[in-house]
What does this fold into?
Amino acid sequence: MRVGRYTGLVSLLVLWAGGLRAEDGWREKVRRYRYCYIDSVYWWSSDRSTRVVVRLKDRRPYTAHLFQNPSRLCIDIERAVLHPPKQTWEIGDGLVRRVRAAQFSPEKARVVLDLAEVRGYNIFRLSNPDRIVVDLFPKLPKPSPEGPSLVQQLGAKVKRIVLDPGHGGKDPGAIGLWGISEKDLVLDICRRAQKLLQRWGYEVFLTRTQDVFVPLEARTAFANQKHADLFVSVHLNFSRNRRTSGIETYYLSFASDREAQELAAFENAMASNLIGDIEEVLKGILKNTKIKESKVLASVVQERLVAKCRRKNRGVRTAPFVVLIGANMPAVLVEASFLSNPQEARLLKEAWFRRRVAEALADGVERYANRLAVR
Ligand SMILES: [Zn+2]
It folds into this structure.
């Protein structure tokens, strides 16, 4: 009896010491050897895709492989240490069963997504904070809890619209003369466009209704979750050359030129050289994107903006904007004139001009919708 109690105590002590060692090992690897660790895992589900984000404490190389029988996606992260050494996140949305993470080797952490049958996936990284974003597409549509809207069931092709006022909160976007900021102006424009479109019978959601920070990948995921038929991200442009002015509308693809690349870097809140990372995986991403429809939407919206606001037509362009990646519906990004141009900044300060931009956006959406209805 007494011996038993004694060995019990000893084994407790050993366990405690072992635990301490594991704890110290983890900290030491992170502090001294600059290992990264998984900060959190979060996700969004919609009927046509699931987006899983693995947030890391630091930027590390990774590789991803899709395996069958059973279907799973393995992401190996270099110089990563897990604490605790095994972690699980239950998702169970019909496509992703769960996400598991374990220490694969002393140097490597492995994140496994247990899946149902998938048609394809996109994976890319974002910085600030460092995170790996995975979009997964099911072979068969998932049963959706929200379902199509009533008007969709009645046959209308465009009913739900998500407007995305760029930036917000700690991210002001471009700052113009008199300290006016992009984040405030685009929110005002989107609110006005929302009211107009609602009056015309559309359901309109904004990705933010206040001055708050919303991560880029959350904006697209929001549109997917809402089963939106269109996604329009609204921004204002900035150029070092104060004389540059006009309007441009973008859809997702490789940067059409150097200027577009720099703009994407700015809007993506990342260094220009990281754009290369995105472009590397873009080919795969474009396969799962409504490019043709987005291009048509971009040209209709651009035409209306230029005509109504009477600004220079800088044309429909392409760039790898993160906020457009993974959208299940036609998606465009509008740069509705330049905050860096004194004349346009003065216009943007005026409520009547912002109303006009909003009217042009609403009009563009309406015309695109009517085009589809006629076909
Ligand atoms: Zn912007």
